[in-house]
Amino acid sequence: MSRARPAVPGRDRRARVLEAAPGRPRCDDPAPRVAVIGGGIAGLAAATGLAERGAAVTLYEREQSLGGRLAGWPVTLADGSAATMTRGFHAFFRQYYNLRELLRRADPALGMLTGLPDYPLRGADGRCDGFARVPRTPPWNALGFLALSPSFGLRDLAGLNARAALPLLDVRVPQVYERLDGVSAHDLLDRIRFPEAARHLAFEVFSRSFFADPRDLSAAELALMFHVYFLGSAEGLLFDVPGEPFPRALWEPLAAYLTRHGVALRTSTAVRSLEPLPRGGFAVHTAHAAEHHDAVILALDTEGLRGVVAASPRLGDSGWRERVRRLRTAPAFLVSRLWLDHPVAAGRPGFLGTSGYGPLDNVSVLERWEGEAARWAAGTGGSVVELHAYAIDAEADRRAVQHRLLEGLRAVYPETRAAGIVDERHEWRADCPLFPVGGYHDRPTVRTPDPAVLVAGDLVRTGLPVALMERAATTGFLAANALLRRWGVRGHTLWTVPSRGRSALLRALARLSRTC
Fold first, then answer.
1. Most CB within 10 Å of its CB: which of 400, 424, 442, 454?
2. 3-class state of residue 290 by DSSP
3. Which stretch of DSSP H or E encloses residue 474?
């Protein structure tokens, strides 16, 4: 007798379920000891998946707080106000099924998230696109976007290279990498002959989500993004954002949940190396101790993973270690947050993607959704504005880039020209994974040559249609499931968007393009 299909976690009835392997409900005593190294989304998902099944988990995080690239820390502004600084805006799309299930552990109703009414995109030529009026279900979403977009007219549609565009209609993983990983996102768009305005607003906005220049990004990743967010999913392109800064809204409640499940949270504790032990297990070396664990999940960013593996010469095999060594990080990005003494005009959206304003890629007006910023703005009569610039040239002068971002803001929202800056904070980072042309097979998988060592994070290749934060959460649960299966314990059910194009006709056309 077949089991009933679990309830779909979103509105898309074609979402793909990944049933967990069956097994015992919990680990036997004594519980296996697992070190989860890295306290970002991937590490938190892995720790959750293991702790809920009775494993003894220690989570090591080198920073003072959890959250990884979504961490936050307290700052005191020039006016004496207490505030929280972060590494910038992140969109929680509705097709992030596994990330949202992780957050439900601490807040089953996801009350910490609030939806923004649109995802507007604006070019310097004045043309604006959005998704609030676009249908969510493919292929009507694509047709609706074409009908409503001022950046993509019938003449542009007639000028497209249909044969080059057809692979986007039936994206499958990992087949998409076999076909497109050797091509850059820029060159794919050239082949398709996308008009310049539509190129950024409809496609390059996805590549910028990877903090990469389209010339350096694998076209397979771009095609996957198009599938996950547009033609492959009926969840749409609208998204949610946390109603308070990341620590308060997300990580402090989840940390309390993990603590109740027995997880030992070791923040401000960097792992230096791992040493496989003769009788099994590993010595996990920090600055002050070496602790024994039966298994390890490496949930680190690119440089962190490279560093731990380089310092652990007996970990894995030579081929795996060399592939880890070759991993690259994306170029630097900048997050500038400004506390202004005058408000941004009331009609401005909470988030705006931009094109043609120098290095400025987007503008957020935080008081539109974040409680802390709203309280500061209400008390001062000002606004809290955040500016992002991605894929910055390594030789660029940082102060000059910060000034150009401010100029971009004043061009987009002219009322800010009269505003004074109460305080400003600038975060320069260069720690996101790069998915370069031809780099797919160098990326680690969840499993390694040692069955007791797993890898999780947004840099991991999975064979699933997931990306960005959802890839991090999914790989964290996959790593936990791999260990649980090894111990004969039931894993966790996961979900993804559909694994192939939704329209039989469009799939047939895509197959035709592969045979021509």
1. 454
2. strand
3. helix 468-486
Full-model pTM: 0.95
* Domain limits for position 365: 332-429
- Fill in the DSSP letter of residue 451: T
Does 389 share its domain with 448?
no
The pLDDT value given to residue 3:
62
Per the CB < 8 A criterion, the answer to whether 232 and 465 are in contact is yes
- CATH number of the domain residue 365 falls in: 3.90.660.50
Amino acid identity, residue 319? Answer: G
Domain final residue, candidates 202, 235, 268: 235
- Asked whether residue 412 falls in the same domain as residue 452, the answer is no
Last residue of a domain, one of 429, 460, 481: 429
Residues 226 and 321 in one domain: no
| CATH code, domain with 147 | 1.10.405
Helix, strand or coil, per DSSP, at residue 360: strand
| Side-chain half-sphere CA neighbours of 261 within 13 A | 23
Q: Which residue has the tokens 């298994």?
A: 295
Distances in Å between the alpha carbon of 138 and those of 225, 228, 295, 501? Answer: 14, 11, 43, 9
* Chain position carrying tokens 């504790």: 269
Instruction: Give the full edge-to-edge strand order of the sheet including 271-276.
Output: 271-276, 282-286, 290-293
Structure tokens at 230: 């547009």
Whether the bond between 139 and the residue before it is cis, its omega within 30 degrees of 0, is: yes
Residue that is written with structure tokens 């045979």 in the block: 515
What phi and psi, each to the nearest 5 degrees, are found at residue 192? -75, -20
- The residue among 240, 223, 241, 243 whose CA lies nearest residue 232 is 223
Q: Token digits for 483?
A: 């260990």
What does DSSP assign to residue 159? T
The per-residue b/e assignment along 346-366, b for 16 or more CB within 10 angstroms, e otherwise, is eebbbbbbbbbbebbbbbbbb
Instruction: Examine the domain organization and report whether 231 and 181 are in the same domain.
Output: yes
Q: Mind listing the pLDDT tens digit for each residue in 179-190?
A: 999 999 889 988
Distance of alpha carbon 433 from alpha carbon 459, whole angstroms: 6
**Separation between Cα atoms, residue 117 and residue 246, nearest integer Å:** 20
Tell how strand 332-340 and strand 295-298 pair up: unpaired
- Give the distance, in angstroms, between the CA of residue 301 and the centroid of all CA atoms in the same chain: 12
Nearest to 473 by CA among 458, 484, 462, 492: 458
Same domain, 205 and 275: no
Contact 24, 116 (CB under 8 A): no
Note whether 140 and 229 are same-domain residues.
yes
| Pair type for strands 264-266 and 56-60 | parallel
What total of structural domains would you count in the chain? Answer: 3
Answer yes or no: do 369 and 402 share one domain. Answer: yes
Tokens of 413: 């929202």
3-class DSSP state for residue 374?
helix
Q: What is the pLDDT of residues 394-452, one digit of tens each?
A: 899 999 999 999 999 999 999 999 999 999 999 999 999 999 999 999 999 999 999 99
